[in-house]
Amino acid sequence: MATRNRDLRPDAKGRYRPYVGWYEGRFRNEERKQPRFNLGTDLKEAERRLARIRELYEDNCRVVKRDVWSAQALGFAKDIARGDRRIVYPTLSDVIDQDDPLIEYSQMLHNVKEMYPSIEFEPDPQIYGESLALNKKYVSENLRVLEDQLRQEGALPPKGELPREIIPGTLHEALDAYTQDIRRHNVAPGTNETTSYGLRRLERAERFREHHADIALHSLNYDACKAMVDHWRSRPPRRDGKPTSHDNSRHHVGELIRFFRWLDSSSAYRWQMPRGLERVERKIPKTEGERRLSAITKDIFTVEELAELNRHATPVERLLLYLGLNCAMGAAELGRLLRGDFLLHQAHPYAERLHFLSTPEDSFTLFLRPKTHVFGEWLLWEETVRMIEWGLEQSRRLKSDLLFISDRGQPWYRERTKNPHSKFTNVWNRLVRRVRKSDLNFRHLPVGTLRDTLPDLLRHRYSDEIASLSLAHGSPFHGDSLLDCYGNKPFGRLHTALREIRAHLAPVFAAAPADPTEERKHYLPIAVHDKVRALIAEGKKTSEIARVCRVSLMTVYREMRRLGTDTNE
């Protein structure tokens, strides 16, 4: 690639006139000479023109396979030296001597663009349009002749046919270009890193390569596109043999439609979306079991289950439990909570506007959902506030504004990873496994169930509108102040409902220890621990307690010391 020459020197008249390349004289015995280009008197403009001429000379040498200007390229170089940004070529006079000038016009333009990609050519738009139409007709007619000839020779199957238009490129080549487009347009602000959403899209594009043959783009007609969509609608088996999930298949179908739209709009390919493809069936069929389950409401935790989880929880697990329940938040929302998202121990600044009574003892969370940018706010229960204050103190110690952060200073929600919520999932699963050691029949529901529990309670006790508001569903927030959020949303009724529903959840909070922020190691399942203490209270011998509870004598002694019981028998 040619570069600008920073060492250009003006001549006596202030003109920049460098030598670039070589040209041959009219006679064979003449020595090669170097053409000189007058680039004007402005240094910066001369540097730009020189860089373009050098790029053109590289293109020229690649075409002629010699270190010498061709007459055509030299003419273009002189146009650039005069300052022409775009070169008008071809003109009708360039093709007038051809057998069919109009057909030759676009062919000549395409050839010269292929030869000299560094130049921007500007054809006559009317002549070029007519020439393109004639060439399209010419290609179609010749393809029909070729099809008949191949069919007569038996080279083409009886039901096969050639495309009516030749479109360069293959499906996999287009998918490679599509992945580059995803990388360009799914970058986290201020970084060069692909977002987690972009990473998931890249995975789907790679699966398209694995599942679909690399056919020529001219064969990617309606039937071929529909077959690709139907493949993912059929929920193909995963590597473990199980069918792809309903949601995963839906995401793949959506990504496939986005790919077709991108391919249709890309200037790098001449492929056009087949008529009717936008109306192709995309609905993912459900299995019989899924249809039966869809008629039932989502799984939610009972008050008893929430209390059992709280009884077994560590402080950080309790923080996750309380906030997820109080604010109907999932990992994506919890993992982005910052110190500034909380109004603690103060009356709501717009309580009068929201038509609800607020006092300085109240606390609130105010938040924009990350994907939809919908504003939401929640009145916080007293127990939730205590755990938030504990969590913010841990964050302050780690010099972070994030609420959920590891001891090493790493955010729980890893924005630019394939599975950004894995930390939340792992912490929650450890808690559930701990509970199941005491109760094997305890349901192992995912952490996302917390998000569904509050809306279900609100829907049955209040209204669908309040339940939807608790999930921060609705239109995105584009205002400049909080007051802009309150026009049509009854946040006051939501806060009142949250205050009232706290009494229904009282058994959950009662299950926590006297100090819910105390860090205690759980050496025993809670059920075994309670049984050991009950037998100690009954005055049973240590050997009997150890035998009945299947624990060591040292464990019994440890619990006796904690209870202040005499360990001497």
Summarize the topology.
Elements: H1 43-64, H2 71-81, H3 92-95, H4 101-115, H5 125-152, H6 171-185, H7 196-211, H8 222-233, H9 246-265, H10 288-294, H11 303-312, H12 315-327, H13 331-334, E1 342-343, H14 351-354, E2 364-368, E3 375-379, H15 382-397, H16 422-438, H17 448-461, H18 464-470, H19 491-501, H20 506-510, H21 526-537, H22 542-549, H23 553-563
Antiparallel strand pairs: 1-2, 2-3
Helix pairs in contact: 1-2, 4-5, 6-7, 7-9, 8-9, 12-15, 12-17, 17-18, 18-19, 21-22, 21-23, 22-23
The first-to-last residue Cα distance is 92 Å
CATH class of the domain at 303-510: Mainly Alpha
Name the CATH homologous superfamily of the domain at 303-510: Intergrase catalytic core
DSSP helix count? Answer: 23
Q: DSSP strand (E) fraction?
A: under 5%
User: What is the global morphology?
Assistant: elongated
Give the neighbour order of strands across the main sheet. 1-2-3
The CATH architecture of the domain at 303-510 can be named as Orthogonal Bundle
- Provide the structure class: mainly alpha
Mean pLDDT: 86
